[in-house]
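Predict structure. Chain length: 111.
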Amino acid sequence: VQLVESGGGLVQPGGSLRLSCAASGFTFGSYGMRWYRQAPGKERELVAAISSSGDSTNYADSVKGRFTISRLNAKNTVYLQMNSLKPEDTAVYYCYVRDFWGQGTQVTVSS
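Prediction complete.
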C-alpha cells in the first residue's frame, strides 16, 4: 500500500487549499478513506472520512461546513477541499487506509 499526499502549503486565513492523496497497492474502490491531521504538540485527530463509494461522509465538528472530502475511484485518489481556513487548521495532514499512513503534507495558515 502506498499513499502519497500533495497540495499543502502556506495560505492566509480565509483562504483555500485542496489536498490530494494518490493511492496504490490495493483495490481503492473497496475501502473507505480518511484524512487526519496533527498539529505541533497535539495528538493526531480524524478530520474527515468517506465511504468506499463516496456516498457517505463524516467530518470533525471543527471543520464541518468548511472542508469537503471526495474521491475519484477511477483515479485512485481522495481529496480534501479546505475553505475558510483558520490558523488553528495548521497541521500536517495525513491520508489513511487499512492501518497505512501517507507521509503527510504540511498546511500552514498564517498572515
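Summary: The two ends are 37 Å apart (CA to CA).
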